[in-house]
Amino acid sequence: MPSRRPGATLLTRLASLLLLLAAVLGISRLPAPAAAATSAATHDGLRQLTSSNFTLTQNGAWLIEFFSPSCIHCKKFGPTWSELSQNKDHLRTQYPEAPFTLAQVNCIAQRDLCTEQGVEFLPRLTIYQDGVQHQGEYKGDRNYAEIAAYIDKHAAEYRAKKGIADKQSASVVEANKGAAAAVPAPAAAAAAPPPQSQQQPAAAAVPPASPPPPPAAAGLPIQPTTAPPDEQLPAGPNPKGELISYGGSEIPTPEALAQWLGKGSGQGPTFVKFFAPWCPHCKNMAAAFKQVAASLKGHVNVLEVDCVAHGAICTKYKVNGYPTLRMYNDGNPIEYNGGRNHDAMLQWASKAGAAVGMRNLDSVAALTKAAKADEVFFLYLHSPATTKREIDIVDRATRVLAGSPASAYVSSDTGLLERYAEFLATDSSRTVPASSALLVFKDHSTIQPTAAYHPSSSVSSSMSVEDAVEDVTKWVHTERWPLMTELTGANFDEVLDNESGAYVVVAALSDVHHHGRQSTDVVEGTKERDRELMAVRSLSLGWRENLAAKSPAKVIWAWIDADRWATQLRKLYGIKPLDLPHLLLVNGAREEYYELPSQRPDGFGTWTPRERVYETIAGAVRGELPAKSSRSMLDRGIRGAAAGTGAVIDTSKQHPLSSFAFVAFFMAVLFWGLRRASAESGGALGSSLPLYNGKAAAGVKAD
Prior knowledge:
Blueprint: H1 6-28, H2 36-41, E1 61-67, H3 72-87, H4 90-93, E2 100-106, H5 111-116, E3 124-129, E4 132-133, H6 144-162, H7 170-175, H8 186-191, E5 244-245, H9 254-261, E6 270-275, H10 280-295, E7 301-306, H11 311-316, E8 324-329, E9 332-336, H12 342-354, E10 359-360, H13 364-373, E11 376-382, H14 388-398, E12 407-411, H15 414-419, E13 425-427, E14 434-442, E15 451-453, H16 455-458, H17 465-479, E16 485-486, H18 492-496, E17 503-509, E18 513-514, E19 517-518, H19 522-546, E20 555-561, H20 566-573, E21 582-587, E22 592-596, H21 610-621, E23 628-629, H22 633-654, H23 656-680, H24 694-698
Parallel strand pairs: 1-2, 5-7, 6-7, 10-12, 11-12, 16-20, 17-20
Antiparallel strand pairs: 1-3, 3-4, 6-8, 8-9, 11-14, 13-14, 14-15, 17-21, 18-19, 21-22, 22-23
């Protein structure tokens, strides 16, 4: 075997070590598989109602389950609801003149609909009859037996109200004698003793109510039906719950992709991942992204594009890093910068996929209602003479709020225009002057907006629509944060590495640790934490009212539960329990942070010294203070190497001829240098080294 040079062996071992380390880090960051209950909570294949087809409830009686895929109780109830939906479907098909239908509403995807229907907790079961919500919701136990009896009771009442006779045969009724829930009369159903199946798990319970129609082989007639078939309820996009890969049979060409993601395609919203196979972050999130595709079945398409195999596509869609995640909704792209785990992506994609633009407000009362529901909301006020171009630009720009807690509304109401007239800008260049403004309200207050943007003066007619949308979008990104944001696993990356490049003041607060002492009383510890939070809110308010306008950079204020995220806070920022409460100023884009004065000796909502906190923030924002890095030495080295490798690869792809010429030149210089060194040393490179030089060695004496 040919021998290896020591330098080559060292490089080989070092490369192997780095690859092994990267593999270990990659494996450690892989998201844990979502529990089986997560997908069960989505109740795949069952009837889904949305704001666009909720009018179906105007025909017949309905039992609607309002749920959330992330709700623990909804997940536990999922199998029971699925079984009820199947076994009780005959109440719809057998009685077309008085159908009773089971359906559900996903309150993550249909937040506005759930708000309109007064949903305050999940899961909620509510009866609707001919479009009218039944007073009160189901409040019994969530087991099969009790809900089945509840369904049969209301179905029988609705049939009686419509004058429709029971179509069950005598043999079926006889077979169900003795079942407690088989009595259709309301009084009898209420007086019946609890069925024995209540003492058993729901899966083992025997439905006490009338069973589904027996098969024809049993000799019982199958009733004809004129009820609308299931297909009338939209199956929605992503019918199979599968991840689509660009270049496959569904989207084989650039033209097909442009049509799929474009306006009016009819494909529905699409969550897209642009990735590179060599990218560690892409590998880490691959399993979670595939799970998201399954969880969004019937709601949102999920697509991935390999930017190594399809570089021209990624260049066309302006992909500047990997992975890049976007929601394309009717041609409008919305960037996702949140967590890359299953639950965070699912929650955001469900909301972003259901976004339909600005909602209309027609009165001051409607504005007050919106303020109660949203801590932060935008209101685009415009007079009737405002151009359609400006309205469309603002509508597209505010769609970036999809998936965020903030909402967007639009109004031309005279009362609202008069109320906020001082904040409007008037375009007098038009024949009929037009007034408009995009206002932002925070802290559930409608007294006055916290900021205003004037499209008529800020967006000139000479700007392209795309540039105008981008300009308004930047302002919306900057103003969409509330007075205080709680950092969670779902929004941590989105807040710290925000689109507007803002600095983030982070208050690490604990229920247990307070200024070096440990609270043993849970109630008192929580009260102390709340007082500290009030103090930070006061700091935030003072900054917003007195200093924000003078600051060269935007500052967002947030807090984090230091008990729950103790490990992360220690690793990233070196915060220990004895340091709590603790204030930091974080620059997420550069992964740097600054220590802020964190002493609050009094307990009355004043963080002292307030002026020193503000001075430190101002100095850091102006670049006058040294920053600390939130990355470890190892992480910095690996990230730097990965960034350098990625830059080289991207440059080589974009400029292949120049890259080849550079490599050829480098190799030629290297070869020339080696030959020159060999010639000067008499043909032996090693002889020039002191330890191996014969003359030098001869002068060395042994001990």
